[in-house]
Design a protein that fits this description.
Elements (H helix, E strand, L loop, with lengths): L4 E2 L6 E6 L1 H4 L5 E7 L4 E5 L3 E9 L2 E5 L2 E6 L12 E4 L4 E6 L3 E9 L7 E3 L7 E3 L6 E7 L10 E7 L4 E2 L4 E2 L1 E4 L3 E3 L1 E9 L4 E7 L6 E7 L3 E4 L6 E3 L4 E9 L8 E2 L11
Antiparallel strand pairs: 1-22, 2-3, 3-10, 4-9, 5-8, 5-10, 6-7, 6-9, 8-11, 12-13, 13-14, 14-24, 15-23, 16-25, 17-18, 19-22, 19-24, 20-21, 20-23
């Protein structure tokens, strides 16, 4: 199995736990906890900042002992936009599930001067990108232009069955601004219906990295470098949650030259 494909560790509790150490990189961490109503999880950010994304379900969330109330409204990631909470470095957070809950814990190096906040559905509008079989639906949870974080960029995408996404292929693995930014990236995948699968390829121009993976419900793929398109097979919609971070909080990508002709209207 590819080293870039991370399977769920369990059927409940801590499902995923990608750290910079386990991924072999510097910036991005990603975990996913699955809780039953009444169960609680908590954490300390230390020198990192964290974005808690309620992928599905509801929870009572508190930061540094201050209640943010009960958050969440969708019961699957395919039903509307998410609730999320930004937690700055040096903070402690707690989430108590009030329904079945899938909670994503996205992390990256933190900075000073940032405050905890709730990111409610509609904070950033869902966008439709592409046309035809390259149409997908994008919700920025923490975009680069919101000034709310030191490192984290968080976005979720829904790709209908039979469509492509993160396509035409692009990469962001060079610290060469303003032309391109260096960003590590994780993809947390969900399928609807859940027994489906999708395909993701991660590859470089020289093919020193070239892996194609069948991703299933709950899988995480790692993108340390290279292009990383996704294809949703017929009959199965694909949701993915992206976490990106690097030395600068800028998403500046480079398109694969041989496929640039596809960019007209996509």
């Amino acid at each position: 199995m590819s080293k870039l494909l991370v399977k769920p560790k369990a059927k409940s509790g801590l499902m995923q736990n990608v750290t910079p150490e386990s991924a072999g990189w510097t910036y991005v961490g990603f975990a996913l906890e699955r809780l039953k109503a009444g169960e609680t999880t908590e954490g300390e950010t230390g020198d990192k900042e964290t974005c808690l994304v309620l992928v599905s379900g509801k929870a009572k969330v508190a930061v540094d002992g201050e209640s943010l109330g009960e958050l969440g409204e969708r019961m699957t990631p395919f039903e509307g936009q998410p609730y999320a909470v930004y937690v700055p470095k040096g903070s402690r957070w707690q989430a108590t599930a009030t329904s079945d809950l899938d909670l994503a814990i996205c992390s990256a190096p933190g900075g000073d001067g940032f405050k905890a906040k709730v990111i409610a559905p509609g904070t950033h509008p869902q966008m439709t990108r592409g046309k035809g079989t390259n149409t997908r639906y994008v919700t920025n949870i923490m975009p680069e232009d919101d000034g709310s974080a030191q490192s984290l960029l968080v976005v979720e995408v829904i790709t209908p069955g039979g469509h492509t996404s993160s396509y035409p292929p692009h990469k962001h693995d060079q610290d060469d601004l303003p032309a391109e930014s260096y960003l590590e990236e994780t993809y947390y995948h969900r399928l609807n219906p859940p027994q489906g699968f999708a395909m993701q390829r991660v590859y470089t121009d020289d093919r020193s990295l070239d892996e194609t993976m069948a991703v299933e419900d709950g899988d995480v793929t790692l993108v340390p470098r290279g292009y990383h398109p996704v294809a949703a097979v017929h009959g199965y919609d694909v949701y993915y949650l992206n976490v990106m971070a690097g030395p600068k909080r800028i998403w500046k990508f480079h398109n694969a030259r041989e496929h640039e002709w596809l960019f007209t209207g996509v």
